[in-house]
Amino acid sequence: MILYADASESINFVRGRFVLENFKSTDKEVVPASRSFSLTVAMHFSLVCRLLRLYPSNVIRLSTKKFLVVFRKRFYHLDFANTSFTYRSDIVGSSPINVLLDDGVLFYGEYRQNKERSPIALWRSTDFGETWESAYQ
What we know:
The chain is mainly beta and 137 residues long.
């Protein structure tokens, strides 16, 4: 599954691993999405992944080798330079449909069932997903 692509590289999600492929060379960098044995095994089966929603839904480039990833209702930093996939914060509501990076500020709109018709927030992070605050309701 292709998660991200630009003119020089792409990030694919293959059997529970993030694979960064450079188009100008044959170099590939790999970072596992989980250290849990059972989750790693589950991600090898596409039907299980689909049923349990074990696919990343958003990838935003933060710097040359670092990305913000929405995975399993949480924000993670994917760092190919340090070969790490690190939890950063939880998501309010369900997984956001989209995440926007504008001048170093991340935004996402809360997405959830709202039978009680309570206010829905637009969330903002100025520290690349470490913390979030309500920007607008």
